[in-house]
Specification:
Elements (H helix, E strand, L loop, with lengths): L3 H20 L2 H17 L10 H18 L17 H20 L4 H9 L5 H8 L3 H23 L1
């Protein structure tokens, strides 16, 4: 089994990149990366090896991100525009759309949520996802496609 320092060195960039793709805020991504590894060390005995360490860490990171969203007044952008700034309404609309997308992603059932997350945010290939789940590459492709369809339908519901 790997020690915590080795895991941190090997997976820090993956976790940080995943979190940055979720929130687009370098400071928050760094904070959540540190919290992810802190939680991983605390929960190390829960890691059963059913998925790769990177997948497990990304799941913890995702939970940290959603926890940050639930905090009062989460700051998820580098700079929040003032009402007098041109394009403020567009920025609010974009933020609302992003929040709807995060909620829709969070509501996806497993394994669709995890497959979509690994493909989209961790940029894993279908073959790598298939290996993580012990399934075929076709299964990974179909599952990712279905996840996209489910998200698309959920987002249509958000607009209504």
């Amino acid at each position: 089994m790997l020690d915590a320092d080795t895991v941190y060195r090997e997976y820090r960039e993956l976790v940080y990149g995943y979190l940055y793709r979720l929130c687009r805020d370098s400071g928050l991504s760094e904070e959540l990366t540190q919290e992810t590894f802190f939680q991983a060390v605390r929960q190390w005995n829960r890691f059963r090896g059913e998925s790769g360490i990177g997948t497990w860490l990304c799941a913890i990171a995702r939970n940290q991100f959603y926890s940050a969203l639930r905090r009062p007044n989460p700051v998820l952008t580098e700079e929040v525009p003032e009402q007098t700034t041109p394009g403020f309404a567009d920025a609010v609309a974009d933020h609302s759309l992003a929040m709807g997308a995060y909620r829709a992603l969070h509501d996806l059932p497993e394994p669709y949520r995890e497959v979509f997350t690994l493909r989209t945010f961790c940029e894993l290939k279908h073959a790598e996802i298939a290996e993580l789940f012990g399934k075929s590459e076709s299964w990974a492709r179909v599952t990712c496609y279905r996840a996209k369809q489910m998200l698309s339908e959920a987002m249509k519901g958000e607009k209504a």
